[in-house]
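User: Predict the structure for this protein chain, please.
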Amino acid sequence: MNLQLFASSGDGTGADGGNGDGAGSDEGTGGNGSGTSGTEPPSFDDLLKGGHQAEFDRRVQKAIDTALTNAQNKWQALTDDKLSEAEKLAKMTKEEKADYLAKKHEKELADREAGITRRELMAEAKNTLAEKKLPVGLAEVLNYADADSCSKSIEAVEKASRRLCRPRWKRN
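Assistant: Here is the predicted structure, written as structure tokens:
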């Protein structure tokens, strides 16, 4: 095996002045011992020209196919949900349909209201944390189910923070 192909000098001689047959050096790399030729690594285009274009194309096509399949599956699930809801509505009487739509609308409003409440509680919690000189980032871990839960979780965070921030000589 001729390791001199990787030598830095390219003239076939090793570090010991040998002729490149591998007999003169223990390292087998020759030159400065780094094993690199000092030139820039090949560009991406050069690698593709070196016979890797087909493999690159195959991998890109596989990634595209996977993404397309995932998108089609999501679209199909969404379409199936809407279709099944439409089928349910078609089978209902007018009274059942009105009741179903009213309940659906109520649920959407409750979800929106819960989201607004959560955002308001989070804003208030951030203000409270800032007033108590606690990191505002702790607002992400608080409980926003309702105002009482939020207050209790702020108190718990404050208590834990005081315990952690006490000087060592005061800890028991």
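DSSP finds three helices and no strands in the chain.
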